[in-house]
Amino acid sequence: MRYPHFLIPRIKKQIWANDIFYHANLLSACTGMRLGEELAVRGEVLKENHILVNMQYTKNFGLTDTKSHRSRKVIIPEQLMIELKKYSELNNGGYVFSTNGGELPVYPDTLRLSLFKAFKAIGIEDEQRRVFVRITRYFPVSGSLLRIIRNLHSFSKE
Q1: What's the pLDDT tens digit per position in 52-78?
Q2: Fold of 5-153
Q3: Helix, strand, coil content of the chain in percent (nearest 5)
């Protein structure tokens, strides 16, 4: 899988506040998972090559059933799964995207803001950002989609 230039690991430190935000947003871009579903990822749902999405996390209600009320398997790129399992280990099997040892996930607004800051760092304006977020929710990042997005929104600074 080819990632857009702003997700390439060697330049991520210039754009992302930290690795947790980078990997959470990469998971979203690769899978189309909802923010609450990502925040609910715990060690127990990380399988060999997929995540079992069966919960969501909201700031008001905590861990609840997913929006669709159904569980599903979401295939994860191998390298990303390695990183997620590292976070799980660091967080004692608790919430993967956590800064307090897995007890609670990162705050949803902080994660969302990190994406907006990353977009700004690579020159993507608010309207372009809104379109990108909507597209990737329904069509996770793929090579052909990336080419379309790059052409429409001039993502590449090359």
Answers
A1: 999 999 989 999 999 889 999 999 989
A2: hpI Integrase; Chain A (1.10.443)
A3: 50, 10, 35
Q: In whole angstroms, what is the distance from residue 89 CA to residue 102 CA?
A: 9
How is 124-158 classified by DSSP, letter by letter? --HHHHHHHHHHHHHS---HHHHHHHHHHH-----
DSSP per-residue codes, 64-89: E--TTS--EEEE--HHHHHHHHHHHH
Q: What SS3 state is found at 108?
A: helix
* Torsion angle in degrees (nearest 10) through CA of 37, 44, 26, 49: -120
Q: Which two tokens stand for residue 85?
A: 């399992």
12-52: per-residue pLDDT in tens? 777 888 889 989 988 988 888 889 999 999 999 999 999 99
Residues 34-45: b if buried by 16+ CB within 10 A, e if exposed: bbbbbbbbbbeb
Q: 95 or 158: which carries more pLDDT confidence?
A: 95
